[in-house]
Amino acid sequence: MLPYLKPTLARLWRSPGTLQIGTHPRRARAVHGLPEGAAPLIAALDGRHGLSEILRLGRRLGVSRACVHQIIALLAAAGLLDDAHRRPAGLPPDELARLAPEIAAVAVALRTGDGGASVIGRRRGRMVRIYGGGRLGAAIATTLAASGVGHIAVRASGETTHADVGPGAAGWSDVGRPRSDTVRDAVLRAGPRTRVHDDGVPDLAVLASSGYVDPLLGAELVAEGVPHLAVAVREAVGIVGPLVLPGGSSCLGCMHAVRTDRDPAWPKLHEQLLDGSEDGSAAALVAATAAQAATQALGQLDGFASAAVGGTLEVVWPDWRWERRSWPRHPACGCARRRPRVRGGPPRLEPSAPPADP
340-353: b or e for each residue (b if 16 or more CB lie within 10 Å)? Predict the structure, then answer.
C-alpha cells in the first residue's frame, strides 16, 4: 500500500493536535488527538512511501506503531485516503496529465479509495452516441470526452452554420462543413485519444435537440435495449431528461401518451413541432443544459442513480433554478411490458429517491 491524502483537499492545522482536511461542509473532516510530531507523518502520506516506511518514520518521531495504524485507519474510514498502487493504470503520460483534474475530482466526490481509478477505467471503456450536432450536442460531446469517456460517436445531419459556433462546439472556420465532422473534431480537441468511429451498440445515447425528439427514435432505442437521455433547449428553457432505461423506466412514448391524455390535440401539435425550425438558444443556457446533461450521462455510465429517470430536469432563463417534473409510465405504452435488459457494466449503486416535483 502507498497511502496518500486526496491532493485536492486542503490540509489545515487548527492546533498542534488537530488537523482539518478540506474546507467545504460536504467534504471537510477534522482529526483530533494527533500526537506531537504528527505533521511530518501526515506529510509522508503522499503516495510515495509504503506503510513500512511510514511506520519507521513514526518510530523516529516517537509515534507508536499502533498510533500510526490508527491514524491511517481513521483517515481511510473517513474517505480521505487513497492507495497509489490503485491509481489509473495503462494511460499514456499525456492522457494521464489531461485527466488528472477529472481523476482528482472523482476521488474526492466518490471516495472509492482507489484514487478514481475504477470510475475512470469504466468511462474509458464506454461508448456514447450523440444524436444532434448543433451547439447543444457538441457541448455535451466535448464535455464527455474531457471527462474521460473513451468512445463518442456522432450522428448529425446538415452543415455547420454560424449559429452552431459556441464554447466547446464549432469554430468560425467550421461553418459550411458537415456537422458530424465538426463535432468529431471538437471531441478530438477535448480528448485527443477518444475513439470517434460509429460502430457497435452504445452504452448510452444522448438525443440533443432544439425542439422535440421524435418518439420513433426513442422506440428504436428501447427495442435495442439502449439507455438514452433526451436533452433540449427550446423557448429559453433547458430540459434534461427523461433518462430512459429500457424496460425499467418511463420512455419518450410514455411522455407522448401522458401529454395526449392531458391534451387530446397534442398529437396534432407534436406533428407540427417536429416540422418546425430551430429556435434561438442563449449561449449560457446551452452551456448550463449541456453541463447538466453531461452530469446525468456520467452518472449513468458510472453506475449511479439519476434524477432524470422518470422525469425531466428543467431550468428557465432568467430564473436559473433547476426544477424536476415527473413523467410516469403509461399503461398503454409497450415499453412497460419490456424486461430490463442489462448492458455490460458494474452493478448499480443503491439509488436515492429523486427530488419531488415542485
Answer: eeeeeeeeeeeeee
Closest alpha carbon to 243 in 292, 196, 283: 292
Give the C-alpha separation, 176 to 167, whole Å.
18
Q: Quickly tell me which residue has 407540427 as its cell.
A: 272
In 10 A of CB 276, how many CB atoms? 11
The answer to whether 313 and 322 are in contact (CB under 8 A) is: yes
Of all residues in the chain, what percent are helix, strand and coil, respectively (each to 5)? 40, 20, 40
What digits encode the pLDDT tens for the residues 301-327? 999 889 999 999 999 999 999 999 999
Cα atoms in the Cβ-side hemisphere of radius 13 Å centred on 20: 11
Instruction: Set out the domains of the chain in order of their start, with CATH numbers.
Output: 3-85 (3.90.930.60), 87-119 (no CATH), 125-337 (3.40.50.720)
Report which of 76, 67, 23, 16 is spatially closest to residue 45, judged by C-alpha positions: 76
**Nearest Cα to 94, choosing from 187, 184, 191?**
191
Cα–Cα distance for residue pair 279/31, rounded to 1 Å: 54
Residue given cell 518514520 in the structure block:
57
Are 28 and 22 in contact by the 8 Å Cβ rule? The answer is: yes
pTM: 0.88
What does the block give as the cell for 198? 460509429
Nearest by Cα to 134 from 181, 179, 196, 174: 179
User: From CA 286, how far away is CA 243, in angstroms rounded?
Assistant: 18
Q: Which amino acid is at 100?
A: A
- Give residue-wise pLDDT tens across range 332-349: 888 866 555 545 444 333
DSSP character for 338? S
CB-based burial label for 78 (10 Å; 0-12, 13-18, 19+): middle
What is the distance, to the nearest Å, from the Cα of residue 33 to the centroid of all Cα atoms in its chain?
A: 38
